Amino acid sequence: KVIHAPITFTDDYREIASDAYGILAGVKTGKSFLASGWGGAFNEKIKPTDNEIVVSGKRGLCGFASTNLDFILRQNGIENLAIAGFLTNCCIESTMRTAYEKGYHVITLTDCCAATSVEAHEAAVKFTFPMFSIPITADEFIQKL
């Protein structure tokens, strides 16, 4: 199964604290990920198909926090996760760590993640991914299916 966990916000960002700092402050000031705009829309190349699941309610960095992702995975008998997305050193890392701590078998697709810099991406892949997942490329993953 393919499961998408997009982050989206209302137009007034009421989900984010007024005194937010760090990345969420940047989301707010940058007017990013608005559910009503292109920033909250899926790119046509990765748009969910009819048989894929879209997790709603993601308002932070981790795919598990503020969502029912864990419930969906367990209800579908899913124990193995292959994680991909953006930001490598933020949302991917956070979701990967939580999945690992919840007992899932975690694979992180190293060439299906991106960060705001090559250095940030490479540092996460080299140092953090091996601690909480099996880091492999998409081709390596497909060969193992």
UniProtKB/TrEMBL annotation:
Tell me which InterPro entries the record gives.
Isochorismatase-like_dom, Isochorismatase-like_hydrls, Isochorismatase-like_sf
**Gene3D superfamilies associated with the record:** Isochorismatase-like
Classification via CDD domains: cysteine_hydrolases
Keyword Phosphoprotein carried by entry: no
Tell me which positions the record assigns to the signal sequence.
none
Q: Which PANTHER family match?
A: ISOCHORISMATASE-LIKE DOMAIN-CONTAINING PROTEIN, PEROXYUREIDOACRYLATE/UREIDOACRYLATE AMIDOHYDROLASE-RELATED
Supply the name of the protein: Isochorismatase-like domain-containing protein
